[in-house]
């Protein structure tokens, strides 16, 4: 059975498009076919757009796992079953459990594993020292069965059928007259095998005798105890050891504390570390939503690095990556965009190729490895290619994209042209979406030098529909620019049936004018069939910023 360290997530960029979703699913499938040592899990860094929903439903594939943050969480740390005790257990048992399992902190739980408190070796040691010379069971009676078990003894006489031992505890080491003079009714006395002392103590009114060194109790003493209502318990230990075992036979609830950090399995390790360092137990209890114990994490458990393993697809820029990627272990990247700003401490496999779609690269690798390719996976990879190339018409489309698409279409038993139109149509509905949703449904963030830029893309065949929404969309662009601290916010509006597309800009619009050699009017320009963000827009913006800084 694989644990969390054997799991590798395959994940695309934020605001995932069809290519990002499909390449994650397709590449996870390929890796699972060719590598049986790990489990590759397709994931996504955001919600599904309409194209992805359509394709997933069409080919009957489950959506990738949603991961909004790759920061390591408690469940990544390899949780173990906890060693626990009941609040009724004697302190001696808690100490034994700690010794046998080499732990310093012991959670105390009820029968449903609900957390009641915690006990440490330090707590037990403190109780042991504090109890020297002043044992008193009045406040915390000891269970008779527990006490007998701890002493390795037996019940000699129990005329009143008591179940708990209570009262002050004395050790009969002084002269007979001295110890008898101190005893009051209800006291417990630890005594040796002297019959005269035992007789006098019973007659003095003590509630219980604990006779040490596994003695033979005379019939006279038994009868006297039954007559006077005195409990007699034997002990297999000597007098000193019996006294200490008595101290350790009180319930662990007497010394447990509720002052310990708690966390859920989805808590960030960085946050739990801080709470552990502030806790005197240097531990945190991992609980579910009902406060039931799942595991315990100590400072030692978190000394080494805990990281999720990931393969990044369809991007290689930090600005586009899922939150927390800097805390993850990137093992591979596969992409078709410009080389961005993600660096890794160790060499990794980095497959970057200027084709129209990451799905083309995944398909080629699958064919090369002769891996099994189900109709459903072939259909999704085809969807990614057709979406990213606008059904093989975009300027980034290569012969490799066309070749891969044809082969995938045959495997998926579908028509490129017919299915392509259906796929694009599924993503062009702008009537029922808010202006903000339209901006975020296909949006990517870039960093040029020290300036942040965000470029969104909307595809529609209905110019009237967009014109009716233009005002609110532009206002939302300005709002987004202020909230995100962007130097420039751009929106590409693509109509597959037209020969031109519109580019809207807010912020440092001079960059857009320099990039396209034309002046913006009312915050927008019309350009001739640009279409490709990665090939025709981003490079121009990059050059314009470089020229401005130079």
Describe this structure in words.
- With about 550 residues, this protein is an alpha/beta fold.
- The protein has four domains: about 5-70 and about 305-425, inorganic pyrophosphatase (n-terminal core); about 75-125 and about 255-300, CBS-domain (Roll); about 140-250, HprK N-terminal domain-like (Udp-n-acetylmuramoylalanyl-d-glutamate--2,6- Diaminopimelate Ligase, Chain: A, domain 1); about 435-550, DHHA2 domain (Diaminopimelate Epimerase, Chain A, domain 1).
- The chain is about 35% helix and about 20% strand.
- It contains 18 helices and 23 strands.
- The strands form six sheets. It has a six-stranded parallel beta sheet.
- Helix 16 links the parallel strand 20 (about 450-460) and strand 21.
- It is elongated.
- The two termini are about 55 Å apart.
Features:
550 residues; alpha/beta; inorganic pyrophosphatase (n-terminal core); CBS-domain; Udp-n-acetylmuramoylalanyl-d-glutamate--2,6- Diaminopimelate Ligase, Chain: A, domain 1; six-stranded parallel beta sheet
